[in-house]
Design a protein that fits this description.
Elements: H1 7-15, E1 26-35, E2 38-48, E3 53-57, H2 64-72, E4 79-84, E5 87-89, H3 93-96, E6 100-103, H4 115-125, H5 131-141, H6 157-169, E7 175-179, H7 187-204, E8 207-211, H8 215-221, E9 224-229, E10 232-237, H9 239-245, H10 251-259
Parallel strand pairs: 3-8, 3-9, 6-7, 7-8
Antiparallel strand pairs: 1-2, 1-4, 4-5, 9-10
Organism: Bradyrhizobium ivorense
InterPro entries: AAA+_ATPase, ABC_transporter-like_ATP-bd, ABC_transporter-like_CS, ABC_transporter_ATP-binding, P-loop_NTPase
Domain ABC transporter: 26-255
């Protein structure tokens, strides 16, 4: 597959260089997490530049969720360091919690509360100014108006996904951590959500770290892809260069190669 130097790829090049003035949104150095005898995360390092979208890929058990949990300060690393927006995590997490947020359709909000009540509670936790207006704006942008006063437990899976995204955007975060953001959405709604994320990134210069099994979504959204396997970083580059290195036309094909231990082009014998 011929490599093409796209604007997105040039942006990815910048993401792999050291940010001047230590301005990386996320800076992970030699991060390790051991659960008893299992090394869930095994000495990984990466820096993510501000204003970029990075995909974090890997099969079940690759270490993605543990890595994100350590970035958020929810899990203590066994060793290594994490800095988010210039703050050391977890020691200084309260300095930056108001500037970051997380979204996963697999984490339910209180079922008996309405969508409006849930968003109000989270908005107050983040001390969002003009909260009522912010909720109304999100309801307009994410098409929540028809069920804004419906109990969360009575929503469809797709509606819950949109509400979870609204919760993640309630404080207009500088850093957005996403886990399968378009799960359970029909193709049209999923495409609309991806467009919204792209627009949000551009208008707010926000940084997005996206864990997803939707390879087409990652190809479309991400400047850069980090592939994990068994707690280690298997590859880290722009989608275009990774696909070229494996001589594949899609990231899904690359994902299968990595999962099945196939050797990429130019890799030393005995490595994947």
């Amino acid at each position: 597959m011929q490599q093409v130097d796209t604007g997105r790829e040039r942006a990815a090049n910048d993401a792999f260089t050291t940010d001047q003035g230590g301005s990386a949104a996320i800076d992970v150095a030699h991060l390790v997490k051991v659960y008893k005898t299992t090394r869930a995360v095994d000495d990984i390092s990466f820096r993510i530049t501000r204003g970029s979208i990075t995909g974090l890929l890997g099969g079940n058990g690759a270490g993605k969720t543990t890595t994100i949990a350590m970035i958020m300060g929810l899990v203590l690393p066994t060793s290594g360091t994490v800095h988010v927006l210039g703050a050391k995590i977890p020691e200084q997490r309260y300095d930056v919690l108001g500037r970051m947020n997380f979204e996963s359709p697999y984490v339910d909000m209180p079922m008996r509360l309405t969508v409006r009540q849930n968003l109000t509670i989270f908005g107050r936790l983040y001390a969002v100014k003009h909260l009522r207006e912010r909720i109304d704006r999100l309801a307009e942008d994410l098409d929540l108006k028809d069920f804004l006063d419906r109990a969360n437990g009575k929503l469809s899976a797709g509606q819950k996904t949109r509400v979870a995204l609204a919760k993640a955007l309630i404080n207009e975060p500088d850093l957005l951590l996403l886990d399968e953001p378009t799960a359970s959405l029909d193709p049209d709604t999923a495409d609309w959500v991806r467009q919204h994320l792209e627009t949000y990134r551009k208008t707010h210069n926000a940084t997005i770290l996206l864990a997803s099994h939707n390879m087409l979504e990652v190809e479309r959204l991400c400047d850069r892809v980090i592939i994990m396997k068994r707690g280690k970083i298997e590859d880290d580059d722009s989608p275009e260069r990774i696909m070229a290195r494996y001589n594949r036309d899609t990231l899904e094909e690359v994902f299968l190669d990595v999962a099945r231990g196939r050797v990429r082009e130019g890799a030393p014998e005995g490595t994947s």
